[in-house]
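Appendix B, record 7
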Amino acid sequence: MWICKSWNEYKILDVSGGDKLEDWNGVRVVRPDPQVIWNEKSHPALWNTADGVYHRSRSGGGSWQFTRKLPERWPLAFEPLGLTFYIKPTGFKHMGLFPEQAANWEWMYNLIARETRPIRVLNLFAYTGGATLAAAAAGAQVTHIDSSKGVVGWAKENLALSGLSDRPVRLIAEDAIKFVEREIRRGNSYEGIIMDPPSYGRGPGGEIWKLEDCIYDLISQCEEVLSDTPLFFAVNSYTTGLSPAVMEYMLKTTLVPRFGGKTSCDEIGLPVSATGGVVPCGATAIWEE
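Structure tokens (predicted):
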């Protein structure tokens, strides 16, 4: 498992009964996590220190219950790369960042930083810009694509907060698949691609997106916008029915015949301070030159 142990301002304090207790730079919240199927609390009293708890609704969605008034938003630093993000509870239980992805940020940053040639990176389903900031900090030109104008604006604020507003980053609110199709027609190309597609959703025309059904075609399309000398390709998944090995196999069969290189895959996870254990948080498959 690829585990990010570099966080100072974020911690999973304990996990139990389908929930995880987290500390986001001094703000403690309890959020659901379907991977937590055990019921024992390592430090029961610690759970009483939570500032907010997200309760799922049986009809779908959920809501927050707070024990104190929180700031509208607050900063969270990932010090190893000099990045800072705005954090706030959202209506979908998220906090505006997926901390486990920092393992991928560090990997990508190191790949880009050692290059002497210009590196163009395409970040699809880019959310609030964790990978975008990491690639920009390493010196890449980044095209950031997400269909939500709100989170694209959030990514712009994160760039400014991290002192990266002057970097060559294009922030575009657009459907990722439509954008890739247009880039193919335009003849544009990239040395690096990273994508974090949703497990399920609907396209701009109401069409249903299901990751297991669509991911192979998307990878094949993205291959067409890779340059002749690409550096990396990374695919993230939070779909339990899509194993890391399956994603790696897709990269191996689509990219290796054309570019050579190597592939790898694994779960990504975060340590739990109460037990020293690790909670799996998703999966990543990568191709490298």
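Remarks on this record: The CA atoms of residues 228 and 259 lie 8 Å apart. The mean pLDDT is 94.
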